[in-house]
Amino acid sequence: MIAEDLPKRRHKAYLLGVLFIALGSLILIATGTYYGYAVLARSQLDKLTFSGEGSSVSEKDAIVASTHDFLSLYPGDKLNPKYWGAPLWAGTDPYEMKSLPEGFIPLNGHYSSLDVGDLSAAERMEIPIIGVNSEVRDLAILDLGSSRAYETPKKIVGHIPGTANPGEPSNGWYFGHLENPLAGGGNVFQDLPKIAQHLRQGDRVYVLLKNREDTTYLYEAVSARVVHERQIQLSPSDTSIITLVTCVPRMVYDHRLLITANLVGLKEPSAADDSIRPSATVNIP
What we know:
- By secondary structure, the protein is α+β, with helices and mostly antiparallel strands.
- 19% of the residues lie in helices and 24% in strands.
- The chain has helices spanning 2-43, 67-73, 195-200; strands spanning 105-106, 122-127, 132-138, 141-143, 148-150, 157-159, 171-175, 206-211, 216-228, 241-248, 255-267.
- The strands form two sheets. The chain has an eight-stranded mixed β-barrel. Strands 4-5 form a two-stranded antiparallel ribbon.
- It starts with a helix and ends in an 18-residue tail after the last strand.
- Mean pLDDT is 78; it is low at 54-71 and 271-285.
C-alpha cells in the first residue's frame, strides 16, 4: 500500500515544486517590472517642474519689428503666451494678461500688520484649471509613540496647522492625495502634475481659498518643483504664499510635487460689511 502511494506523493511534490517555481518567476517578473517602471517614472519628474525663469524663445528666431507695428498686429496682453511664437494659430483662445477674475481686488503683497493665526482658516479650495473643488481642514497631529506625525487627508485638502491661513504674510502648506485606492484617501490632487505644463504654456493658474467668513483669497501659481520625500521642509515666507503638495510619481510616491502660488487678489462677501475686513494696510512692493 505504501509502495503504491509513493508515486502519487512524488507526483504531488513535483506539481508543488512546479507551482512554487512558477509563482517565484511571476514575483520576480512583477518586481522587475515595478522597479523598471519606478526608474522610468523618476526619470520623468523633471517634466513636472517649472521655475518661471528664462525664456523658451530663441534669439536667433526672434522677430525684428517696431514696437508700435508689432503690438498693433499682435497685442500681447490679449494673446496667450503659448501662441507668441505662432500668433496666427491663436484662434479664439481667450487670454487677459492683466485682469483678475471678476470681483477680485488686486493685491501685490501682503497684510503687513498681520501675524500667522490672525485670519481664519480656509474651508474650501478651488483650482478651476484642473477641476479641484474641495473641502479644506486642518490636519490633526497623531501620537505614534516614539514620534508624531500629521494625519493623512482623506478625500479633502489638508492644511498644516501653524502655517499661514489665507491672506496671512507667510507660507500656508496644503496637502492632498494624488491617488490612494487601497486606503481610500481619495485623489483630490490627481491633476496637480498638470500645472507645470499649464505654466509653460503661459496659462494663468489660479488657486482660490475661501475662509470661514466667506472671504476668498486668490493665489496665482508661479512655480513647480519636485523634491525627495525626505527633503521636504515646511519653510515659512516673508510674503503671502501657499504651497500645494502631493506625492509623485504614480505608484512610487517617494517624491513630493510642490506648487508655489502668490497672493494676488481678494474678494469679500459684501463690500458694505466692514466688520469682517482686516484692519491692516496692504504693502505694494
